């Protein structure tokens, strides 16, 4: 009876899955034309990019942000001659690995055209902190939590439960690793080691970004790479951020900075013009 129940359950789940996929595809098609994508706020000559909630590359979780939208907004502001600086306003626990590295690289590229700063409001963790590091300056408000530097992958081995219920999944595959993790199959030590290899490589990319953007190496890098979160004061001492302050403080400081840079650029242009006349 139990085997029959499982068979009926799996059959129902398969039918439900096919119907759900078709329904989701239709819903996504409709919503793609209706959902307003996030847009940057313009405050004076500063463009503010909102980065909130859980991060995903394509379809963000409820209340989250797509890294593709972040890239679009940063690119838009970097190309706008009326915008003199870009502020990333971050309140996020991180999210999917996909899209993080590309977003980090794009932010660094934008920083070669005009100042890009990050403001962490309350939470800048994991992938969100990775993105924040693309900026030349990171500020956090005093109660902000910063860090959670690391990568993880969660797996669940239900093979013992299936065996106890008399169910033996049969996986027809081309190798030990193709199809690894299928529900009910055993996760072997070799498969687990392979997943660990990938996690370690992704972690290496994260650490490389910290070395590049924050200048931390050796013991100082190891000290911040254990997955812990730090309040802003500790994050400042550890070299993860550059200052503690509110968003308003950072906007005021950045406005002064871009005005100074603008005056210097104008003075340099005037000097070059005089040299040509002489």
Give descriptors for this structure.
278 residues; alpha/beta; 2-enoyl-CoA Hydratase, Chain A, domain 1; 3 domains; 9-stranded mixed β-sheet; 9 helices; 9 strands; 49% helix; 18% strand; elongated
Question: What does it look like?
Answer:
The chain is α/β, with parallel strands linked by helices. It has 3 domains: 35 residues; 148 residues, 2-enoyl-CoA Hydratase, Chain A, domain 1 (Alpha-Beta Complex), CATH 3.90.226; 66 residues, no CATH class. Helix content is 49%, strand content 18%. Helix 2 runs parallel beside helix 3.
What quaternary form is this? single chain
Q: Indicate how many domains the architecture comprises.
A: 3
How much helical structure, as a percent, in the residues?
A: 40-55%
What is the CATH topology of the largest domain? Answer: 2-enoyl-CoA Hydratase, Chain A, domain 1
Number of helices: 9
Strand element count: 9
CATH superfamily label of the largest domain: 2-enoyl-CoA Hydratase, Chain A, domain 1
Name of the top-level CATH class of the largest domain: Alpha Beta
Distance between the termini: 98 Å
**Class from helix and strand fractions:** alpha/beta
> How confident overall, as mean pLDDT?
88
- What is the CATH architecture descriptor of the largest domain? Alpha-Beta Complex
Biggest sheet overview: 9 strands, mixed
Q: Estimate the strand proportion.
A: 15-25%
The whole-angstrom Rg is 24 Å
């Amino acid at each position: 009876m139990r085997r029959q129940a499982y068979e009926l359950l799996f059959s129902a789940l398969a039918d439900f899955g096919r119907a759900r996929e078709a329904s989701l595809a239709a819903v996504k098609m409709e919503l793609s034309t209706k959902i307003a994508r996030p847009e940057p706020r313009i405050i004076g000559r500063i463009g503010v990019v909102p980065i909130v909630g859980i991060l995903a590359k394509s379809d963000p979780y409820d209340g989250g942000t797509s890294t593709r939208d972040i890239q679009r907004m940063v690119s838009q502001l970097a190309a706008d001659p009326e915008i003199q600086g870009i502020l990333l306003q971050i309140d996020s626990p991180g999210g999917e690995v996909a899209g993080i590295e590309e977003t980090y690289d794009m932010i660094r590229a934008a920083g070669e055209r005009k100042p890009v700063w990050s403001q962490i409001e309350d939470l800048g963790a994991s992938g969100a902190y990775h993105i924040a590091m693309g900026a030349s300056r990171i500020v956090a408000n005093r109660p902000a939590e910063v860090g959670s530097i690391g990568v993880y992958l969660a797996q669940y081995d239900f093979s013992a439960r299936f065996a106890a219920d008399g169910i033996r999944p049969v996986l027809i595959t081309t190798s030990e690793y193709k199809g690894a993790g299928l529900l009910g199959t055993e996760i072997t030590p070799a498969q687990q080691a392979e997943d660990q290899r990938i996690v370690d490589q992704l972690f290496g990319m994260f650490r490389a970004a910290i070395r590049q953007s924050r200048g931390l190496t050796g013991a100082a890098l190891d000290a911040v790479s254990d997955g812990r979160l730090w309040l802003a004061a500790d994050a400042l001492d550890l070299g993860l951020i550059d200052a503690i302050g509110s968003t308003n403080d950072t906007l005021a400081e950045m406005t002064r900075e871009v005005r100074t840079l603008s005056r210097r650029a104008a003075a340099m242009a005037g000097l070059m013009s005089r040299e040509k006349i002489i």
